[in-house]
Amino acid sequence: MPRKFETTVQLLRHEVLTHVAKLSMEKTLDQHKDLIPYMIVKGKKPHFRCCVYKERAVLRERIILACGNDVRGSSGGIIQVMETACDECPVERFTVTEACRGCIAHPCMEVCPVNAIGQISRKAIINQEKCIECGRCKQACPYGAITDTLRPCVKACPVKAITTGEDRLAKIDPEKCINCGQCAYRCPFGAISEKSFITHVIQSLQAKDHPVYAIVAPAVVAQFQDATLGQLRTALKKIGFFDVYEAALGADMIIPEEAAELEEKIQAGSFLTTSCCPAFVEMIEKHFPELKEHVSSAVSPMIAVARYLKAKTPEAEVVFIGPCIAKKAETVREDVVGAVDHALTFEELLAILSASEIDPAQCEENHREETSPFGRAFARSGGVTQAVVQSLKESNKDITVKPLKCNGAEECIKALRIAKAGKLPENFIEGMACINGCIGGPAALNHSPKAKVLVDKFSQEAQMKTIQEANTTVKDVPISLHRD
């Protein structure tokens, strides 16, 4: 199943996961996992780092995470820093380059609030022990001689959960981290990654002593572009899943609940935020705790479908598959624990398919209609708002929704700051931690602009045109659609 990967880091992740998956299927992982670095890095000529020994050492840490274990120095979270890989970034953020002319005015020295800049041989120099990284020197230099080199992971983290330790390695603060995965996606050396539960899922699929269901996020249609959802359903059944459901069905299930909550909030002169994005929910809980009462109590679409499946088949195991790293953390939240057993990313699914030598595009069609266009549109920014408005319309509610659609973590933070200050003019915040929504998730295989087009097309193809119509298929099994 040849495909073009977006980056070499993505390719290396795929190779490690595929080897781990294949050995796990063959039940020889414990005996042969130490050989994987030599299967990937062959010979004595390095390709990415200083030497093949360093390349293989990094791969060993990737294998540890791929097997669901913690790497050295980890705090035990879902997202971890591989110490062996994290050593290539400059630590000093602001530095003076050769472009410094040693001018008489030396505005960089004048604007520094902590006197961290001096001159040696007429050239400016920054005392890194004093520097507070305010950036005023860079702004003041008329020659642009001061560079700003912020570590990519630090720059990518929207909640300032990453710092540099005394050992010059990146450190993730679990008290601040919202598991959005942007650091893992943006690190150019691939030094940050998440734990995988791919071996656990493979073991469950091979056991064949209970049904294992897959729930796929609607963004999937942009990931395996040569295959339809029906063909992917067939492929998943070939690798052992009992059946495959769309997470969009869960979106249809929870939207009436969220719409009812919004109506109550508006009537009370307040506002509501969405709860489907786990990184956005964690952002509120950890960084804006005073706003927790405004978060919808509705569970995410993933949890809704999982509860439905387990209500129908109590002995079932449920695996979510999507572009989101934060979903792995959501599965173990106390208020929803037990619904979803494991969460896989699209990267991990591709690895299992590759290890099984199954190409979804070559599989038979297995089409099934179970969702509305509005449930499927959850995959993109603005989709939740569209669905809430539609649900109110279907219920003949005369409610004026004033939405604030936050596209990415930065917009979410800005909106929450306004809400915290009591100056929010809107009454509904749709929070998506990833730019463009789930289709921009860190573990997506395809981040191209075409992804949104494909999701929109997929949404429009739904045969059930209303949310109420989609929900008629699940009314036979009553479940709680709210967090415990």
From TrEMBL:
Gene Ontology MF annotations: 4 iron, 4 sulfur cluster binding; metal ion binding
Gene3D superfamilies, A to Z: 3.30.70.20, Fe-only Hydrogenase (Larger Subunit), Chain L, domain 3
CDD domains in alphabetical order: MtMvhB_like
Keywords, in A-Z order: 4Fe-4S, Electron transport, Iron, Iron-sulfur, Metal-binding, Transport
Pfam families (UniProt xref): Fe_hyd_lg_C (PF02906), Fer4 (PF00037)
Keyword Cytoplasm: no
Top-level lineage group: Bacteria
Domain 4Fe-4S ferredoxin-type: 122-151, 168-197
InterPro entries registered for this protein in UniProt: 4Fe4S_Fe-S-bd (IPR017896), 4Fe4S_Fe_S_CS (IPR017900), Fe_hydrogenase (IPR009016), Fe_hydrogenase_lsu_C (IPR004108), Mono_FeFe_hydrog (IPR027631), RnfB_subfamily (IPR050294)
Protein name, per record: 4Fe-4S dicluster domain-containing protein
Lineage: Bacteria, Bacillati, Bacillota, Clostridia, Eubacteriales
